[in-house]
Amino acid sequence: MPLIDYIPAQTNIHFMRLRHWTFPFSAALSIVACLLFAIHGFNLGIDFKGGTLIEAQTSQQQADIGALREHLTDLDVGDVQIQEFGSPRDVLIRIGAFGTTDEAQQAILAKVQGVLGTDYSVRRVETVGPSVSGELVRQSILALVLGAVAVLGYLWFRFEWQFAVGAIVTTMHDIFVTLMIYSAFGIDFDLTSIAAILTIMGYSLNDTVVVYDRIREMLRRYKKLPLPELLDIAVNATFSRTIIVSTTTFFATLALYFFGGEVLRGFSLAMTVGVVIGTYSTIFVAAPILIHLGLRASTVSLPTKDAADPEVKELDELVKLEAKDAAAGVPPEAAPATGVSAGGGSNKGGKGKNGKPNGKAGPARPAKA
What we know:
CATH topology of the largest domain: Multidrug efflux transporter AcrB transmembrane fold
CATH class of the largest domain: Mainly Alpha
Distance between the termini: 33 Å
Order of helices and strands: HEHEHEEHEHHEHHHHHEE
Number of domains: 2
Helix content: 55-70%
Shape: elongated
Oligomer: single chain
Largest sheet: 4 strands, antiparallel
């Protein structure tokens, strides 16, 4: 047992009741994301639109960005963007694709290095030709599409179709919100961003599959338990695991954001936002959407029941209590607060051998949503 129990192992939160607020919130986020994509677009990096990127550092205390911009504009080398990069001594120069050949880009690079002279030391140079950038765009789109199709196929084979559709909707929700961050803040969208999106897709699916596996296991055994109440118990059973894993990943990506340097700033920001929104969607989108997709216990095949499993015994006790209350005509709200907690643990009241209460009264079962 841990000395300090920050996150209770057994929670009793009525998540399904909140779906009437979380669904409109998620829909609004997705609509805002689509509007930003259409109006503001993305700040595509040189990987996707071609050009030259030069990172330079001055020997002075601070780089004179205004003078650099004036000299480079006089060269007539096309679209030039200059910005401070990290410390005041560092500058990042972006030159759009100018010409149709790689030789033209090399000529532009030589002119820029001539303007920088001896006052600046060139620390990094990246050049992407027009033909290479077009190929990278096609390959990135193909990677995202094939990844989504492979996930859909696996989930359809592994779970019932309701779970597959729910996982895809949840994953698309997470991707849209992450892309909204890129569009809203003008973060460079390049191959590193594609890697961040694919990583978030895998992370979100991992959390969703863990919850779905518990839901399917309970549906196989307890066919008469109302679906909202069953979903509440399943989400609460995996809640501590979800929060602990997400918190650990969040602090790791946050450290990468602050200490990883400017090159990884966009990637780490996307990962940080993706972890938060992925945890939210696992709890408040992935599970409640199964109610609206018409999931029923009859759609899940029966496995062999392991009677030795302590969680099976505890949940069996919950089902028996529900059946007893229904037979006696007791409404769910008036049922005694004895039985199984949301996390699947059993808290039994009663008296000890000396006739005194043992002090183990359990919390009330999740009410029907």
